[in-house]
Amino acid sequence: MNIMKISEELKTSINVAFIAGDAIMKIYNEDFDVEIKENNSPLTIADKTAHYIINKTLNKFNLPILSEEGELLSFELRKYWNRFWMIDPIDGTKEYISKNGEFTINIALIENGHPVMGVVFAPALKELYFAESGLGSYKVENIKSMKDFKFSNFIDLTKSKYPKIYTLVVSKSHMNDKTQDYVNLLKNKHGNISTKAFGSSLKICKVAEGNAHCYPRFGPTMEWDTAAGHAVAYYSGCKILQADKKTIIKYNKKNLLNPFFIVSHE
């Protein structure tokens, strides 16, 4: 991959993901309080810290920013956004609190309802995924700062190889009957199958990198949960469609709740 082809937006997003990752890892290794938001989801000082760092940096592009921890503007204002940032400062706060390492920083650039760039950084795992229209989709392992980026081994996710046994990713925190029904459907179709459980947007990325053939999501997610991972999967050659396997996923809808969807490489 030619690093010179990386846009300023992508370069800045990767760098600020590292900076935010370093900040939240310092909190991660200490004791911290947990708040409960109105929607019953957890919130920590790390979520707020990452939100502040990322927003302060991305403001230089003079684009609107939609962040899980920011102000949720009405659709009457948002509907005029043709190009904007969509941020999840910590995706997988439950994983962050339980300290299992499977949480990510998600930064996406949306144009006309579609992610054209995405960065997913898992600071505890030192794994970086990034993708951009015209560039492709890549993974970097054992990385935690921008100074390492230039000399990294870039794994081209468009060349991912998939397991012989049909494998699907499921959520660690949100397994339900509808998902189990879909698992049973795949068992009938493929015979012996394998399932792997991951937290956060890593589930989408695992399909992009060839660890699994499919990730069915029949549970609630918000647009900021999926936008960056969507870019990673899409530009690797995977499909992300609504549960009917025909309708595309759009962003900046009036209701920011995602429909049920399926990520697959097929």
Write up what this structure looks like.
- The chain is α+β, with helices and mostly antiparallel strands and 266 residues long.
- The protein folds into 2 domains: 3-157, 2-Layer Sandwich (Fructose-1,6-Bisphosphatase, Chain A, domain 1); 159-264, D-Maltodextrin-Binding Protein, domain 2 (3-Layer(aba) Sandwich).
- The protein has helices at residues 8-28, 45-58, 75-78, 93-98, 146-149, 177-190, 202-208, 223-234; strands at residues 34-36, 42-44, 65-67, 83-91, 104-111, 114-122, 127-132, 136-141, 155-156, 166-171, 193-198, 214-217, 239-242, 261-264.
- The strands form 4 sheets. It has a 7-stranded mixed beta sheet with strand order 3-4-5-6-7-8-9, with helices on both faces. It has a 3-stranded antiparallel beta sheet with strand order 12-14-13.
- Helix 1 runs antiparallel to helix 2 (45-58) and helix 7 runs parallel beside helix 8 (223-234).
- The longest helix is centred in the first third of the chain and has 21 residues, at 8-28.
- It is globular and about 50 Å long.
- 39% of the residues are buried.
- The mean pLDDT is 94.
